[in-house]
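pinging the channel bc i need a second pair of eyes. not urgent but kinda urgent?? the chain im working w is below, pasted from the shared doc
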Amino acid sequence: MYKRQLVVIVDNNNLQIDGAIDEVNSPYPIDQKFEAFNFHVINVADGNDFDQLDAAFKEAREVKGMPVAIIMKTVKGKGVSFMENQASWHGTAPNDEQYAQAMEELEKAGEALCQK
């Protein structure tokens, strides 16, 4: 019989609505906090890298008898020049011009990924 496993995914872009999390309300060390609750922790150095994410999920599938926490270091707004690493985009919608620019930049990024 297949047993389901708890996998927690933490997208750590180091930002929250008021700024950098280590300056506003730091959760660090995130990995050690999960380990204290008997989680198997997988740290992903670049959560925007699909190969690293694939490896993390493969590792998570192999873990038996304990929950897993995948902690990914990511870049907020990755692929959109004016959104990258900007906390202000947590609660702001782009206007029509910004939306068009963002979609153009993301389409180019997507095409580059498909050529790999």
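so Strands lie at 7-12, 15-16, 19-20, 40-44, 68-73. and The chain is about 35% helix and 20% strand. — does that match what u expected or am i reading it wrong
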